[in-house]
């Protein structure tokens, strides 16, 4: 495909095509969907984190009005575990099946699923289920204090990092921790399953970031051919990684639908959602830097330890971005995991790297101080002009421009580097910065496009729109390539009977999906041109490739014929095109990443230890933004989430028994409107045509990387306190005053 | 977490209310929450359940003109009251100026909190006691969580809608 260098619709601010449905309450999220004869499921969570379920007493619950059945370990079909393979596309979040045995591995693990005629009946009965447990000794409540606990799962080395560290004139050796975070996406996980006995088909409505992964996993779990399982997800009340792969509630609900022969809907209550459907695991990271006196990095060592559960091995790879972050000959990263008795962690927005960037960019700030260098100058001094990890050129990198532009808009040169030196009335001003980065990837994708006789165009792809704007950018792509107004473009996503599309994850959806849609458009246009140049066609006698496309019409020799007119002439209701796209040889020639810079101003009132983020100025290099208004929204939203990470968010597990204490939206705090700083986001516009013909690398995650360290660095500038444990709390700020 | 008692939803109380301008009579259990009655019994799924305990605001509806969390209100308390949900905010085929402003300013991402954000925004724009400056609006909207973090655009939409509705700049104390 040829590069889209002079777009008319791509790159233009475009109101979302799903906006009216969402803003009028008509959008049919999974939690809203209803089916005739539908039953309701309500799970019963374990109240201990480690032990055995000794007995369940169900008599009282069964006697409650409307109760149809109660599923549990002694009353559940024999199912199969999913192979849990990314390559096969059947990865799941928790491979253990619900009610598999009587072991309890974490607080909130389902011990029963009550099925009743109404939601209220199911909930009421669930509270009447009585459970007796045996608590086992040796509960693992979280990371301890040693760097060598757990098991090493990954490592990377280049050069002689230990040797270089040993002889470097300036060194830094510090440890950084982050608390576990909850995604707290506002739509709980939900499943509505229907079993069709006659043709042995399973249809599942799920709030998911990956309909195909869930379909493939369900097919294996229920031992059905993939074509007899359908997964549907039209609107998703966000999911920041915790809806990528299926959780046990969906398996239990689908099993209930098959057992009972009626549709069953389970919507997880918020507490259970927070206990059982993943979180960003807590991490401990040790960073060792060695530098020459001029600031050149001689050695980077990044050792990470993250939690996993006792039922799975989730690796939150903190060191992922470190080997390519800076020009440095000697780099090592090590990753360990430690099983603890918490629910299984899972990817959460910019998984791994965002934690790693917090540690590395905090350490770089500390190193700059030790060197008496400006933190911005230290980044530029160690600028990686090519990818030092793979030894390949970057496809497109403008981090230097991000750093310079954001610094200029922020007013960095006016910063007084003295700690606590900048004041405004009672408030001390702190200013800090950090670099941002996230890898750029693509997944295989197929799509279908139909040119219709009524003048409309329908584009279909089995990916999802989780709020990032996928519906709209697909419509923009069709409008761009056909000239049909965007109002006449219909987009269908989130169904497994559509051509296979990618996960909505990893910031890969845009770069994966749009080239496939474009290929399908070209395929449809090729078919249309063939018809139009047949004998009796609108352009009979002309060569098909001599026809142009303009405003929903084919044109040649100063004549034009609308798509609809051509279809009508041939008595066709529609012409369909198919297309697919996948990453190719460019992977061997270039390294692909996105880059950015955040500059943050905090205000600290030492009298009452009140800290707030006052101002964030960011520049982000993601290639081209397909819909700039939605792209900027992604970065602004990520900045908000980063404020939560830095100052508010922490899942609290009881240090005695590993029970999750704050599994609700009041005790687990996220930023609200009143926490908003002034935000100034700039999206650089350097299309990356080495990545794809749209020049887009994706934008969902990069904005979150670098915010927390920029805040922590600003806090140090204001207070003189180097706070290496997130979230930064009032207690930490008061301590030692 | 399973300690609190939930009474069996057997008994039924008849409640008469006006829902989006239409008189409605509905039989509810005495402990039924307004949000569950709207969603499960009356088929209005615009008000969303986010936290189910008054923290996220996704369920915000207007009760006799005041914005309230439908998850914190018993349905039986609504006898004789007028309730407006997002579905009843504008006439069919039309957008309320606040909805239009949300669309224009991209004041949402996943859209799940949007019905609640919009109902709160409409109420605050109609409440002459609430000043129009940015800090006040942010404070007044802080009962509506947006995990996608579209706060900047929501604020812009509200201030734009203020102009469309009242023709006044933010900052006026009225």
From TrEMBL, chain A:
Single GO MF descriptor: iron ion binding
InterPro entries: Ald_Oxase/Xan_DH_a/b, Ald_Oxase/Xan_DH_a/b_sf, Ald_Oxase/xanthine_DH-like, AldOxase/xan_DH_MoCoBD1, AldOxase/xan_DH_MoCoBD2, AldOxase/xan_DH_Mopterin-bd_sf
Pfam families: Ald_Xan_dh_C, MoCoBD_1, MoCoBD_2
Keyword Oxidoreductase carried by entry: yes
Source domain of life: Bacteria
Keyword set, alphabetical order: Molybdenum, Oxidoreductase
Aldehyde oxidase/xanthine dehydrogenase a/b hammerhead domain boundaries: 24-137
Family stated for the protein in its record: Belongs to the xanthine dehydrogenase family.
Protein name: Xanthine dehydrogenase family protein molybdopterin-binding subunit
Annotated organism of origin: Halomonas nitroreducens
Record lineage: Bacteria, Pseudomonadati, Pseudomonadota, Gammaproteobacteria, Oceanospirillales
TrEMBL record, chain B:
Keyword Glycosyltransferase: no
GO molecular function: 2 iron, 2 sulfur cluster binding; metal ion binding; oxidoreductase activity, acting on the aldehyde or oxo group of donors
InterPro entries: 2Fe-2S-bd, 2Fe-2S-bd_dom_sf, 2Fe-2S_ferredoxin-like_sf, 2Fe-2S_ferredoxin-type, 2Fe2S_fd_BS, Aldehyde_Oxdr_Iron-Sulfur, Beta-grasp_dom_sf
One Pfam family it belongs to: Fer2_2
SUPFAM superfamilies: 2Fe-2S ferredoxin-like, CO dehydrogenase ISP C-domain like
Domain 2Fe-2S ferredoxin-type: 13-89
UniProt entry keywords in alphabetical sequence: 2Fe-2S, Iron, Iron-sulfur, Metal-binding, Oxidoreductase
Name of the protein described by the UniProt record: (2Fe-2S)-binding protein
């Amino acid at each position: 495909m040829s590069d889209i260098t002079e777009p008319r619709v791509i790159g233009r601010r475009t109101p979302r095509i799903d906006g009216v449905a969402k803003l009028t309450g008509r959008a049919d999220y999974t939690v809203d969907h209803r089916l005739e004869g539908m039953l309701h499921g309500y799970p019963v969570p374990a109240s201990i984190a480690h032990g055995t379920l000794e007995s369940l007493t169900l008599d009282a619950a069964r006697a409650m009005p409307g109760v149809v059945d109660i599923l549990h370990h002694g009353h559940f079909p024999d199912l199969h575990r999913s192979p849990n393979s990314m390559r096969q596309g059947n990865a799941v979040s928790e491979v253990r099946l619900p009610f598999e045995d009587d072991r309890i591995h974490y607080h909130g693990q389902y011990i029963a699923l009550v099925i009743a005629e109404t939601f209220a009946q199911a909930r009421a009965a669930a509270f009447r289920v009585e459970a007796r447990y045996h608590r086992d000794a040796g509960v693992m409540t979280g990371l301890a204090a040693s760097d060598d606990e757990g098991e090493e799962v990954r490592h990377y080395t280049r050069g002689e990092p230990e040797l270089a560290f040993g002889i470097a004139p300036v060194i830094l050796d510090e440890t950084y921790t982050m608390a576990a975070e909850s995604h707290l996406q506002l739509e709980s996980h939900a499943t509505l399953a229907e079993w069709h006995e006659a043709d042995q088909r399973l249809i599942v409505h799920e709030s998911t970031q990956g309909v195909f992964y869930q379909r493939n996993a369900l097919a294996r779990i229920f031992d059905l051919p993939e074509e007899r399982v359908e997964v549907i997800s039209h609107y998703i009340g966000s999911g920041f990684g915790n809806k990528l792969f299926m959780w046990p509630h969906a398996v239990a609900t689908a099993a209930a639908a098959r057992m009972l022969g009626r549709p069953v809907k389970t919507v997880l209550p918020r507490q259970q959602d927070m206990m059982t459907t993943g979180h960003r695991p807590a991490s401990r990271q040790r960073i060792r830097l060695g530098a020459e006196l001029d600031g050149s990095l001689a050695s980077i060592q990044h050792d990470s330890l993250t939690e996993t559960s006792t039922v799975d091995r989730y690796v939150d790879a903190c060191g992922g971005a470190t080997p390519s972050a800076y020009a440095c000959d000697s780099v090592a990263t090590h990753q360990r995991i430690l099983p603890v008795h918490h629910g299984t962690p899972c990817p959460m927005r910019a998984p791994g790297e965002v934690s790693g960037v917090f540690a590395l960019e905090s350490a770089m700030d500390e190193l700059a101080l030790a060197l008496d260098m400006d933190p911005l100058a230290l980044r530029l001094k160690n600028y990686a002009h090519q990818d030092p990890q793979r030894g390949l050129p970057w496809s497109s990198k403008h981090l230097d421009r991000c750093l310079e532009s954001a610094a200029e808009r922020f007013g960095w040169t006016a910063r007084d580097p003295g700690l606590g030196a900048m004041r405004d009335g009672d408030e001390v001003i702190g200013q800090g910065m950090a670099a941002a980065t996230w890898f750029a990837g693509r997944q295989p994708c197929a799509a279908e496009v139909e040119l219709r006789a009524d003048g409309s165009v329908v584009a279909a792809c089995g990916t999802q729109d989780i709020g990032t704007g996928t519906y709209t950018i697909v419509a923009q792509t069709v409008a761009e390539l056909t000239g049909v107004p965007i109002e006449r473009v219909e987009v269908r996503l989130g169904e497994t009977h559509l051509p296979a599309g990618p996960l909505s994850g990893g910031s890969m959806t845009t770069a994966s999906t749009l080239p496939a849609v474009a290929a399908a458009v070209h395929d449809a246009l090729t078919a249309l041109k063939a018809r139009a140049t047949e004998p009796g066609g609108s352009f009979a006698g002309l060569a098909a490739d001599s026809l142009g496309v303009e405003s929903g019409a084919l044109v040649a020799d100063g004549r034009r014929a609308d798509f609809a007119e051509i279809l009508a002439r041939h008595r066709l209701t529609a012409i369909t095109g198919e297309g697919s796209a996948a990453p190719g040889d460019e992977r061997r020639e270039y390294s692909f990443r996105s880059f950015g810079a955040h500059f943050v101003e905090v205000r600290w009132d030492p009298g009452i230890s009140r800290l707030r983020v006052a101002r964030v100025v960011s520049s982000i290099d993601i290639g081209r933004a397909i819909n700039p208004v939605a792209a900027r929204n992604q970065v602004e939203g990520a900045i908000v989430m980063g404020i939560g990470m830095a100052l508010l968010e922490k899942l609290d597990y009881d240090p005695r028994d590993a029970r999750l204490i704050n599994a609700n939206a009041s005790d687990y705090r996220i930023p609200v409107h009143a926490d908003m700083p002034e935000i100034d986001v700039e999206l650089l516009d350097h299309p990356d045509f080495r990545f794809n013909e749209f020049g887009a690398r994706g934008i969902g995650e990069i904005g979150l990387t670098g915010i927390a360290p920029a805040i922590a660095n600003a806090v140090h500038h204001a207070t003189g306190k180097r706070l290496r444990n997130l979230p930064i709390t009032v207690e930490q700020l008061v301590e030692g005053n | 977490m399973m300690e609190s008692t939930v009474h069996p939803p057997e008994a039924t109380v008849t409640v008469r209310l006006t829902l989006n301008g239409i008189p409605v009579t509905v039989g509810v259990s005495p402990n039924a929450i307004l949000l569950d009655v709207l969603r499960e019994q009356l088929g209005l799924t615009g008000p969303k359940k986010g936290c189910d305990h008054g923290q996220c605001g996704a369920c915000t509806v207007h009760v006799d003109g005041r914005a309230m969390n439908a998850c914190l209100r018993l349905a039986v308390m609504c006898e004789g009251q007028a309730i407006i949900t997002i579905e009843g905010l504008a006439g069919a085929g039309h957008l309320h100026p606040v909805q239009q402003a949300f669309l224009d300013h991209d004041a949402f991402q996943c859209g799940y909190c949007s019905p609640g954000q919009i109902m709160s925004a409409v109420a605050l724009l109609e409440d002459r006691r609430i000043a129009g400056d940015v800090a006040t609006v942010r404070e007044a909207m802080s009962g509506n969580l947006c995990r996608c973090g579209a706060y900047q655009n929501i604020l812009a939409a509200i201030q734009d809608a203020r102009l469309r509705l009242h023709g006044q700049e933010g900052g006026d104390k009225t």
